[in-house]
Write a structure and sequence with these properties.
By secondary structure, the protein is mainly alpha-helical. The protein has helices spanning about 5-35, 50-85, 95, 100-120, 125-155, and strands spanning about 1-5, 90-95. The chain has one domain. The protein has five helices and two strands, in the order βααβααα. Helix 1 (about 5-35) packs antiparallel against helix 2 (about 50-85).
Length: about 160
């Protein structure tokens, strides 16, 4: 199967989006479980008079860290993979689309989610990690969608990609 460069970038964005969405939903579920079960170990929660406020701040910090992860770490990876893709023949063969490191990253992210579910780690820690990673991946997927749109616009205007 062959994909145009813009389609390959969109496919990658879709993959990151659904993995990120899965992790965010799982993280939110674990936040609610931690709240209901009082299964908290993070030092930040006792600093607040109301546990609701502590959970809200924890949720907010996880989202901010996920956003920063996407902007400062994942953005470099997205740019690097996009650059490599644009150097490939257009359309690109699906087998050649992703390097081993991409599969390794996806595997690690999914494994992290599975390991966090299976280990007896407090619910708030699971929630925090899953939400942070998930938000990062969702933001990273948005970058892929932006690059896909830019590549498609460029190719429609007479460019070669």
């Amino acid at each position: 199967m062959k994909l145009k460069h813009s389609q390959a970038l969109r496919l990658t964005g879709i993959i990151w989006f659904f993995i990120g969405l899965f992790l965010v939903v799982s993280g939110v579920v674990f936040f609610f479980k931690a709240y209901e079960m009082q299964d908290t170990t993070l030092w930040i929660l006792p600093l607040f008079p109301a546990k609701e406020m502590g959970f809200f701040v924890l949720f907010l910090v996880a989202m901010i860290l996920g956003f920063l992860k996407a902007r400062f770490l994942l953005m470099r990876m997205v740019k690097k993979m996009t650059s490599k893709l644009l150097k490939m023949e257009n359309p690109v063969v699906l087998k050649k689309l992703y390097p081993v490191t991409f599969y390794l990253l996806v595997f690690c992210m999914l494994s992290l989610g599975l390991i966090l579910r299976l280990l007896h780690i407090p619910q708030d820690v699971k929630a925090f990690v899953m939400l942070t990673v998930g938000i990062g991946l969702l933001n990273g997927s948005a970058l892929y969608f932006q690059f896909s749109k830019a590549v498609k616009t460029y190719s429609e205007s007479g460019g070669k990609s």
